[in-house]
Specification:
alpha/beta; 5-stranded parallel beta sheet; 9 helices; elongated
Length: 213
């Protein structure tokens, strides 16, 4: 852990690891590891508890293109669902642009957000609470299968539509079968043909759930 001395005159707000985990939609252990790796700056209370500086958290969020903390608040479920949101977690700029183009042409009513890696994706998921999640299987930091397994432990994930995208062929996907079972998977060479109908089906299910007969 990279710890810093906290000057008595330093009045900036700080958070416990649990508070940061709640704000980012992550597990407490994941936040602790971020502190240990020096990604977040923290100090220890006399009782040995970590306190994470808000300035450090805001810098981490801003560095990943995410909104900094707003008075320590996260969006409420009602705020997050004012417009249907799609979160794409994909490290390839080419496929980020391709998905953005497809959604702009076929689904202009949707709000698309993009994360470049798995850790950033976890944070954005907690902030946005998206309606549809598009996830690449192979990601920097944490692979898509592990990311989805982590998200499934969160109650809000039950209301999210999930679509995997990957360059892996059927044989190469076998190690990820536990996470891919019964979920739509798009092979990247067929992204243009397969994403629009799968996304349309996801939106139809979301509409049916919001307006049951």
């Amino acid at each position: 852990m990279i710890a810093i001395a906290r000057p008595p005159e330093d009045l900036q707000e700080d958070f416990s690891t649990r508070e940061v985990a709640q704000r980012l939609g992550m597990a407490v252990r994941s936040v602790q590891l971020m502190v240990d790796r020096g990604e977040l700056q923290a100090w220890r209370t006399p009782g040995g508890h970590r306190r994470i500086l808000r300035s450090s958290l805001d810098a981490w969020l801003t560095g990943r293109g995410l909104a900094p903390t707003k008075g320590g608040e996260t969006p409420t479920p009602a705020e997050a669902q004012r417009k249907l949101r799609v979160l794409l977690i994909e490290d390839s700029v080419h496929y980020q642009n391709l998905v953005a183009l497809l959604i702009a042409q076929e689904f202009p009513e949707l709000e698309l957000h993009t994360a470049n890696d798995g850790i950033g994706g976890l944070v954005m998921y907690g902030q946005l609470q998206p309606d549809v999640l598009l996830v690449d299987i192979l990601l920097p930091g944490i692979d898509g299968a592990a990311l989805v397994t982590s998200l499934r432990s969160q109650p809000l994930f039950a209301h999210c539509e999930l679509i995997f995208i990957t360059a892996l062929d059927d044989q190469q996907r076998e190690p990820y079968a536990f996470a891919l079972a019964n979920l739509p998977v798009i092979h990247k060479p067929r992204l243009v043909a397969e994403l629009p109908p799968l996304l349309a089906a996801s939106l139809q299910r979301l509409g049916s759930a919001a307006n049951p007969a």
